[in-house]
Amino acid sequence: MYAPTARTTASRSRDRMSYDRAAAHAVLDEAYHCVLGFTVDGEPRLLPTLHVRVGDTLYLHGSTGSRPLLAARGDAGLRVCVTVTLLDGLVYGRSQFHHSANYRSVVAHGVARLVTDEAEKREMLTALVEKVGVGRSADSRPPSRRELAETAVLALPLREVSVRSRTGGVRDEPGDYELPYWAGVVPLRLTAGLPEPDAGVTAPVPAYLRAADSPWRAAAALRGEHVLLEPLDLAHADELFAATAEPEVWAHLGHPPPSTPADMRAIVATALAAGQRGERVPWVQRCARTGAVVGTTSYHELDPERRSVAIGYTWLGRPWWRSGINTEAKLLLLTRAFDELGAVRVAWHTDIRNTRSQAAIERLGATREGVLRMHRQRPDGSWRDTVQYAMTIDEWPNAQVKLRERLHRAAPVG
């Protein structure tokens, strides 16, 4: 616990105040930025900046020419006040007076010192980079001596610290309960969007930037003798465009064939956006022998509660048809679904016109369950009847044996 002081003791709503060390650290660690307050020539200054906590020290990032860093050069340091706030929800009351917000905030007072030790500065910058993505410090160039010289760091010992928060629902006056107005809480949260690679980047999006709130939505790398499945990335788009150029590949898919690499990048971006929303888990398929990108496939219709998933959005370049690649890709996906995720049902949907796809799904050991009439629109605007197949956990052991026997007879491509 932090000891309360005159500056950290609340004058009102004391029930919202806390001095719990773990709670303060949790807020500081979750937030990405803070507000640094100080005075210059008797005038108040507030600067937003980046921060990271290392133990009981809060480090603040800045430029060597900024006012607070210049003021902190002296032996006396710089008296500061740092605030961090996480907004968790908007509270709508029946009266305007009782509109509020749910939040968690930290206020820290003290004397900040300028970090002059190069090792300490490097440790802080590494911790700051790791905060935005665990593993990022090893996945980026360390600062040069010139860059270190241009970067200033303030260190604030965490001693005079308070936590203030509001949680829960509406606190209306009893006399307002019968008013005909909606009241409640709208939760808020910071959510990462789809990573946007810089121009010229060919490296795939690293794992720490891929959203996955459960193993069901994680595109784990899957490896076989014929095919490698790895998380789909925009960097794969050009190779996918080249590998799937034949019109037959797109004959029964849900969008027209891409005519340019930019079209393929748009298709890949759509898949990645669906993955970011948790609606789909997209993989790229590589030939295990050559390493060439040959197609893509996905989980979709994910339902962890009912332990069900569908396999779809599958396209494979014409040269790799009737090879072991498609069979093994399905075996890898089925193994992950049934044996790793605990699924009890895996489904497939295909166009009723796509007899080749239906035959391939049946060879996997799936059961045809019926036809969904006028289920989707094709790219030409016509309505598609969809044939639905599924395999259950009871059918999986026998299907697995037969798929492995087929793969044993298949000759790898490449």
Short characterization:
With 414 residues, this protein is an alpha+beta fold. 24% of the residues lie in helices and 34% in strands.
In words, what does this structure look like?
This protein is an alpha+beta fold and 414 residues long. The chain has two domains: 14-187, Pnp Oxidase, Chain A, CATH 2.30.110; 210-409, Aminopeptidase, CATH 3.40.630.30. Helix content is 24%, strand content 34%. It has an eight-stranded mixed β-sheet with strand order 10-11-12-13-14-15-17-16, sandwiched between helices. Strands 2-3-4-7-6-5 form a six-stranded antiparallel beta barrel. Helix 5 crosses helix 6 (261-276) and helix 7 packs antiparallel against helix 9 (396-409).
**What's the CATH superfamily of the largest domain, by name?**
Gcn5-related N-acetyltransferase (GNAT)
Q: How is the main sheet built?
A: 8 strands, mixed
Mean pLDDT: 92
Structural class: alpha+beta
- Count the strands? 17
CA gyration radius, whole angstroms: 28 Å
The arrangement of helices and strands along the chain is EHEEEHEEHHEEEEEHHEEEHEHEEH
Per CATH, the class of the largest domain reads Alpha Beta
Low-confidence stretches: none
